């Protein structure tokens, strides 16, 4: 029997309060309104950004269904939807692409003005939510909300992908792979023969390493306080890995010495202020480029001597690797299908969706790269 047009009762992981476990609840998912799409979830990765919400470090309205790195199948569509139809395989988009705003029209930017990330409202574009639990409205998360058997997204926040693609792998194109890879090739524009440094060798950091390698970097130095991350990093292209705890000197000084004057490109993929400062300081003073990828703790500022920039360094950052997601994700999925890159090194664990709290324990204890939750 078709579920189109009806409320669907299903399971979702609700975060009622920060610093509490996710609670698997029965939720009601309303049918999609005009220009909205309801998706049956198939697989969702667990990203540190979801954990930042759970710890209170990334602030978005609660209670909420988080999760943003996923793939699923369209269950039904609202009036006027033309981009997808029921049965299509799709990836929800953290960065919508309305195609009309100044950002969508600009050749470089990707944070569409319809985003729910820079000042999260926790709703659909019309300002309301499609989730209800125990009579309470449950908020959406950065246009996606994927820790649920069904979600609803705006048509501008979904990309149709190859019907043959394995969703339990290409879900990582929804965040980790695109964010990391794009930060190297699209944001930093890493050049052949260059020296790169990647702070943080989690799921996103490893994808940065993959991007640096694909761009032809000669030297890729991984920096992580957890030595267990080095083997994987080397497998995907890091030429050496170092632990800041092994040195008496500040890590940026160590890196300047190792590179004889400063590296060409650096990436902060941890989400800490001290590593953001170190990543900026370790690039070559006249032409080095440093990219902020990690999500910083809410309402905190770095203190930086402007001399670091006056001499010629460039400091930038981007969400989702600077990619215009609706245009780029289908192409990245095609590249994956053509075996231009592998997602296997990023997937350390696969668990049933109900074991979501176990997946977060694995992330917090540094034991996982990406856990993919299957629905
Ligand atoms: P994950 O936690 O898997 O990786 C972080 C890594 O940093 C771990 O391997 C840690 O051991 C390491 N680390 C911790 N402290 C230090 C330190 N002081 N020095 C060096 N290494 C350290 O996280 P992830 O890969 O899922 O995400 C990384 C960051 O990227 C995180 O802040 C997340 O919120 C952010 C992010 C950004 C975007 C974007 O669009 N820009 C998208 N998704 C995630
Ligand atoms: Zn993410
Ligand atoms: Zn737009």
UniProtKB/TrEMBL annotation:
Catalytic activity reported: a primary alcohol + NAD(+) = an aldehyde + NADH + H(+)
InterPro entries assigned to the protein according to its UniProt record, in alphabetical order: ADH-like_C, ADH-like_N, ADH_Zn_CS, ER, GroES-like_sf, NAD(P)-bd_dom_sf
Chief place where the protein resides: cytoplasm
Organism superkingdom: Eukaryota
SUPFAM superfamilies: GroES-like, NAD(P)-binding Rossmann-fold domains
Enzyme Commission code: 1.1.1.1
Keywords: Acetylation, Cytoplasm, Metal-binding, NAD, Oxidoreductase, Zinc
PROSITE patterns cross-referenced by the UniProt entry: ADH_ZINC
Entry cofactors: Zn(2+)
UniProt entry tagged with the keyword Acetylation: yes
UniProt subcellular location: Cytoplasm
Domain Enoyl reductase (ER) intervals: 23-373
Family: Belongs to the zinc-containing alcohol dehydrogenase family.
PANTHER family according to UniProt: ALCOHOL DEHYDROGENASE, ALCOHOL DEHYDROGENASE 1A
Name of this chain's protein: alcohol dehydrogenase
Organism: Pipistrellus nathusii
């Amino acid at each position: 029997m078709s579920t189109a047009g009806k409320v669907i009762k299903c399971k979702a992981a609700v975060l009622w309060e920060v610093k509490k476990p996710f609670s698997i609840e029965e939720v009601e998912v309303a049918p999609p309104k005009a220009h909205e799409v309801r998706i049956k979830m198939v697989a969702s990765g667990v990203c540190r950004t979801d954990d930042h919400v759970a710890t209170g470090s990334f602030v978005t309205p609660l209670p909420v269904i988080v999760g943003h790195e996923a793939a699923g199948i369209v269950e039904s569509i609202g009036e006027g939807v033309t981009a997808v139809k029921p049965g299509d395989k799709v990836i929800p988009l953290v960065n919508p692409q309305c195609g009309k705003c100044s950002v969508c029209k600009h050749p470089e930017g990707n944070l569409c003005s319809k985003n729910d990330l820079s000042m999260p409202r926790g709703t659909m574009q019309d300002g309301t939510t499609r989730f209800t639990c125990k009579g309470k409205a449950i908020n959406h998360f950065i246009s996606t909300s994927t820790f649920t058997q069904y979600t609803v997204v705006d048509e501008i926040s979904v990309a149709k992908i190859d019907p043959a693609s394995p969703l339990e792998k290409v879900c990582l194109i929804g965040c980790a792979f695109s964010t990391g890879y794009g930060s190297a090739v699209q944001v930093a524009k890493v050049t052949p023969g260059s020296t790169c440094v990647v702070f943080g060798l989690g799921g996103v950091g490893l994808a940065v390493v993959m991007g640096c390698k694909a761009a032809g970097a000669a030297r890729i130095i991984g920096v992580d306080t957890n030595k267990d991350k080095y083997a994987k990093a080397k497998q995907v292209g890091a030429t050496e890995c170092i632990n800041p705890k092994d040195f008496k000197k500040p890590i940026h000084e160590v890196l300047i010495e190792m590179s004889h004057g400063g590296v060409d490109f650096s990436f902060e993929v941890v989400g800490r202020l001290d590593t953001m400062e170190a990543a900026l300081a370790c690039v070559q003073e006249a032409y080095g480029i440093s990219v902020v990828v990690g999500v910083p703790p809410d309402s905190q500022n770095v203190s930086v001597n402007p001399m670091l920039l006056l001499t010629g360094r460039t400091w930038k950052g981007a969400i989702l690797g600077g990619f215009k997601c609706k245009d780029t994700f289908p192409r990245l999925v095609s590249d994956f299908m053509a075996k231009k890159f592998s997602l296997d090194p990023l997937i350390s664990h696969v668990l049933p969706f109900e074991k979501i709290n176990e997946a977060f324990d694995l992330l917090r204890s540094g034991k996982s790269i990406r856990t993919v939750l299957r629905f």
